[in-house]
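Let us practice reading a record.
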Amino acid sequence: MSSRYHDGALLDIVVDWQAATVTLRIYINRAAIDASSLPFGGQQEHQELHEPELPTGTYSVIVRGFVDLRVPQQRPWGPSVYVDDLSLEEQPDGSVRLSVQMQSGDVIEVVGGMVEEAADSPADNEA
């Protein structure tokens, strides 16, 4: 899950208190991401094994049964709406911690019962 969201733009965070869900919507602009990641000398074959890339579109990362949410905006690296890394960590009590490292240096954290991903209609969305 982590590298697939790198350089995606965090559009919003929606808390549904009654349903105990937190939804992070992230826009992936594949053309811009691919263009910014070309190495000097043009396109080269990647030898790394990684998760498949997400096509252009808006995606939701949903934490169900959330019990804790932290959304700092201290911006120690400067302002940015872009995701650097997204990771999941199972906690000793069986819950899951979603950590979203922003390119601003802030880390958004949500702890809940489970995390799922959903594709909102790709190509119909704009950032």
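A brief commentary: The first strand starts at residue 9 and ends at 16.
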